[in-house]
Amino acid sequence: MPKFKKKFEMYKHLQANIANIYAEARKAADEIGIPPEIRGKFGLTGAISGCPSPLTKKVREAVEKGSTEVIPLAKLVDEIRAIVKDVYGDEYDAAPINTCEAGLWVTFDVLFTPPMQGRGDNYLSRYIIPYEKHLHHHGGYGRPYPPRFKDIFADRGCTAGELGFYGKRQNNLSVHIVPLVGADYSVHGIKYHPAILLTKVDPEASAKKIKEAAQRNASMLAGITSLAYDTPGYGYGVKDADGTPVLQKKLAEIAHEFDVPYVLDNAWGVPFIGHDIRKSGADVIIYSMDKASESTTAGLIIGKEEYMVPIRRALGYHGDRYGTTASYGKAAYVTNDPGKEALLGVIAALKELRENPEELTKPVDDLYEIVKEEFENIHPKIKKGLIISKSYNSRAVEVNYENTWNGEELGLPIFTIEDMYAGTNIFQSGMSQMGVIPTVAYDANIMISPGLGTTDDNGQIIEDRARLAVRALVRLIEIVAKYSGYID
């Protein structure tokens, strides 16, 4: 294969050889021995919204039992609140919702968006977000500032314009996107676009820069948001003695100095064994409970009571107008009602996280060992540039390869999130060719987690299937590396 000196030429060559890469990937799947009967029925993660994990036996039984009983839904919501308060303390509260994205929408509309009522023109407000991965989720609700970011979400998702990500933007709200110190935003991919490379982020210097942005926006500052993840590939590899990412603690301190809430997007995260808002100082954290917590499809908002009161009011949970401690009625966001079976699943998942945390951490430990062992067999040049870490928060193993670009030559190809939406992320589309459902694999970061045909009825790892999925990934990386000229 030719050696390239310019990135765009390498990606152009990959595009021209997609059919050849797919053919080699299918051949490799046969060589690995992936049985035909499981192709398309197992994968690298059960934490993808488009293809979630099957429910575990305990959750299924809880949902089936509760679905045959007469239970007021307000009682189920209060049970969720009680479990959360048992773990985090009575100063915290909770509100279930149908998805994590809906949780972001409600929370930002309640806490960040200016009021609609009152005479005269509405005032403007702004929230701050680090320039980080998955920006279109928690950074998609305001008009981007500075203006150079105004088109950053143009091609995200399946639908463009007002019916796509642009349609999420809330009234008179803007979002200040702050690049992180030490991050690398080099352009990569077949659909050429800045990648967000974060393993070298300096949390102290980044926090100082974000504080300066807060000072400049003080008159309209409504809040600060970020991801709640805790791995190097997401920029949160530097932690304090308690294991809390330093940057997140600093962001909480800045928010509180300006008397605004710090809201965390923890879609791919779990309560109780994951990010601890008591340690980070965050005010609100939002989960997608079906991604890593093994729940039915639902979201969950947890936060300090001060901020949860208006959020619960918006969802119709915070008591009736004539005075009750709880309700389940009409409000602005009744459209985001999770429903009975979703609530039952959330309760079952939270109980398991509270009472049997080792049942959810053991699969992560087992998968981590499998990933390390399988990646020991990858080409030595690729292996040298890998950072492999595990996260109980995301219940996942992260494989990051930014360091393959540390030398003067071009590194292992980096596909961007724009490639994912364009269908040109070969590390995802190539896995599908092998009969393995792909995972989040862009910006030089690959997340692998249990659940999608790789675990048994109790959520524990089925070793041979997990190995096949990881082994297929290793082979695909080598195939792509060969066509890019990175390896011979």
Shape verdict? globular
Gap from first CA to last CA = 7 Å
Number of strands: 16
Q: Biggest sheet: strands side by side, in what order?
A: 3-12-11-10-9-4-6-5
The second-level CATH architecture of the largest domain is: 3-Layer(aba) Sandwich
The amount of beta strand, in percent, is 5-15%
- Overall pLDDT metric: 96
Question: Measured on Cα atoms, how large is the radius of gyration?
Answer: 23 Å
Percent in helix: 25-40%
CATH superfamily of the largest domain: Type I PLP-dependent aspartate aminotransferase-like (Major domain)
- Return the CATH topology of the largest domain: Aspartate Aminotransferase, domain 2
- Main sheet attributes: strand count, strand direction, barrel closure: 8 strands, mixed
In terms of topology, how is this protein built?
Layout: H1 7-16, H2 18-32, E1 47-48, E2 51-52, H3 57-67, H4 73-88, E3 92-97, H5 100-111, E4 125-130, H6 135-138, E5 143-145, E6 173-178, E7 187-188, E8 193-194, H7 203-216, E9 221-227, H8 246-257, E10 262-266, H9 277-280, E11 284-288, H10 289-292, E12 299-304, H11 305-315, H12 340-355, H13 358-375, H14 380-383, E13 387-391, E14 396-400, H15 417-422, H16 426-433, E15 441-442, E16 445-448, H17 463-484
Parallel strand pairs: 4-6, 4-9, 5-6, 9-10, 10-11
Antiparallel strand pairs: 1-2, 3-12, 7-8, 11-12, 13-14, 14-16, 15-16
Helix pairs in contact: 2-16, 2-17, 3-12, 4-12, 5-11, 7-8, 13-17, 16-17
In a few lines, what is going on in this structure?
InterPro entries: PyrdxlP-dep_Trfase, PyrdxlP-dep_Trfase_major. By secondary structure, the chain is an alpha/beta fold. The chain is 38% helix and 14% strand.
